[in-house]
Amino acid sequence: MTLLSVVKDVCAAVGVTVPQSVFSNINGNRTMQEMVSLANEMAQRIAYDTRDWTTMRVFHTINGDGIATDFPLPANFKRLLLTSNIWPSNSQSPMRFIPDSDEWMRRRANNEINSHGEWTKFGNAISIFPVMPVGASASFVYLDKNSIVLASGGVGDTFLSDNDIFWIDERLLKLAMIYQWKAQKGSSYAEDMSTYGDALTVAMGHDTPAPILIDRKPISAHTRTTMPTQTIYVPGPVP
Fold first, then answer.
1. How many whole angstroms separate alpha carbon 114 and alpha carbon 87?
2. DSSP readout, 120-174?
3. Bridge-partner residues for 71, per DSSP?
4. pLDDT per residue as tens digits for the range 169-205
5. pTM for the whole thing?
């Protein structure tokens, strides 16, 4: 489902003229300018703000050379996953993240090193200490910033033509644009937002593995809670 198809459905739902093209003569079409801006915003909200979609996750490995401690982030890097760690190849535990820059410098000045290694982030680079020798590596998973398949080839983070495609779920994009358009124009949008929320919940549920079952019932159905017994001593009469 292309951007043009999505925008046609949105326009029909919100009561504006259905276009033959989104980008043709867009400079003179205020409605299509708003549609493109809204499509980009809602695509980014869905891709980045709702969950760490499996289709947007990228595995990355940094290779040590015995010299470098700073490693540029990939060009398509958006952010680390909410539960991401950096895993060194020579350990079964992740490196320790040092969030505070002063703490990072203090540790370097005092030659304090976690046994599994340490990392922090400065600008568009990840800093790792101690220096990884040749043959050693560190791996992590991050979220790709490019959620749009470009008709011209490759991917990007904004729509550039009528035939570009949203990578995750075009129906989610359509429903999100409908409720947000109505909200921005002062129309009633509660029901449309609820419809989008339901669709988003289903999509997120399908993006994770199915629950483990025991017999034919979920684990929770087999769980029982009991209170421990307690013996209370009541003293008898004193002889």
1. 13
2. EEETTEEEEESPPPTT-EEEEEEEES--EE-TTSSEESS--STT-EESS-HHHHH
3. 126
4. 999 999 999 999 999 999 999 999 999 999 999 999 8
5. 0.81
